[in-house]
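> tool_call: predict_assembly(chains=two)
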Amino acid sequence: SQQGEEDPQALSIQEGENATMNCSYKTSINNLQWYRQNSGRGLVHLILIRSNEREKHSGRLRVTLDTSKKSSSLLITASRAADTASYFCATDARGNEKLTFGTGTRLTIIP
Amino acid sequence: DAGITQSPRHKVTETGTPVTLRCHQTENHRYMYWYRQDPGHGLRLIHYSYGVKDTDKGEVSDGYSVSRSKTEDFLLTLESATSSQTSVYFCAIGQTQGNTEAFFGQGTRLTVV
């Protein structure tokens, strides 16, 4: 079974609004990453947060991590049409070389 | 873009035939991964490598084998393709275990008929 589960599976919002998606995972992690995938393309790394961090920012992206709840959220502020994509969280565990992905959230920004 | 290429990009094959997908990198990264992507399942790890001739299984390894004889090449083989292996396959590379970003190839769309 997969380590991560994103919620919601799909999200549609108006351009300019904020988008929030969540990731829950099952086992203790070392790091958590978020990736974006445009239709028909490979995944592109967005941001990485370590297990001892609680929040991280990168441009319009804000990621939080709650290890007690085994969950993370990705906030995209002031959304743009170009943000339309699928978003995945990925985790790795200490001493385990596997990088495991969740099932993804499909985000659609309505112009 | 990171120097990672997958070949072929598209392939149609018949059930029961062997198929090999190639991932080639020019970044000298230690870690290489093969994933498959299917609707409703996201990305699932098939096999990964942490060095030349060092490989291990992922969560969906049945029916697949891999080889890494050189740092730059990671091959995924379907010994006898089945229709359930119709999928989009992605290769990824990483410099370290998981505390740096992974770079993805463009994917290989495989159809088994």
